[in-house]
Amino acid sequence: MEREGFKTSLSDETGIQVEDLPIPKIVPFDTTKLTISVDEYHIYFAIVFSFIKVLEDLIEAEEINKVYGDLHNEWFAKLVSYLRPIDPTGKLKWDIEYDIDIQDSLYANFDMVEEVMPFIENSGRFICIGQ
Questions:
Q1: Is the confidence at residue 69, as pLDDT, over 70?
Q2: End-to-end CA distance of the chain
Q3: CB atoms inside a 10 Å sphere around CB 103
Q4: Which residues of 9-18 are buried (b: 16+ CB within 10 A; e: fewer)?
Q5: pLDDT tens per residue, range 77-129
Q6: Could you tell me where the DSSP H helices lie in 1-131?
Q7: I want to staple 95 with a disulfide (CB 3.0 to 4.6 A). Which of 51, 73, 105, 119 is the partner?
Q8: What are phi and psi of 67, to 5 degrees?
Q9: CB-based burial of residue 4 (10 Å sphere; 0-12 exposed, 13-18 middle, 19+ buried)?
């Protein structure tokens, strides 16, 4: 993946992270990360979208609530729709974390390499290599 220009790193001895995936900016996310890690019992696969700048200058609770509520719901629906073809089996789940930033994670735990490979291959169709 590094040969293709991706910024990769080992998260520990059993995991790899690919940061800043070139996914089209269909919503105002700031960073994306693909994580694949292996432990004794499963393989973890996730694509994480972080929304940071949209919250940066907000002070008023009303403004923050609008981003966390209405705007994020709209963005999340677009992400779900765009990434739905990655998982025709419905095995991947979404998790949303609201903290200093907003993180939308599409993830799953798999038992075997053969299970996770179709998701990795399908993900490649949504990453714009060379753009």
A1: yes
A2: 15
A3: 18
A4: eeeeeeeebb
A5: 999 998 888 887 888 999 999 988 999 999 999 888 778 777 777 776 666 53
A6: 53-56, 61-66, 72-83, 113-124
A7: 105
A8: -65, -50
A9: exposed
- And the tokens for 25? 């900016």
Residue 78 has a pLDDT of 94
* The pair of three-digit structure tokens given for residue 41, joined into one six-digit string: 């019992």
**Can you read off the two tokens belonging to residue 43?**
């393989």
Q: Residue 38: phi, psi to the nearest 5?
A: -125, 135
Written as six digits, the tokens of 123 are: 């993900």
- The pair phi, psi for residue 74, each rounded to 5°, is -65, -45
Q: Are 120 and 21 in contact (CB under 8 A)?
A: no
**What is the Cα gyration radius of the chain?**
16
What distance in Å separates the CA atoms of residue 57 and residue 76, rounded to the nearest whole number? 21
pTM exceeds 0.70, yes or no? yes
Q: Which secondary structure element, helix H or strand E, spans residue 37, and what is its range?
A: strand 31-38
For residue 46, give the nearest of 55, 36, 38 by alpha carbon. 36
**Element (DSSP H or E) covering residue 5:** none
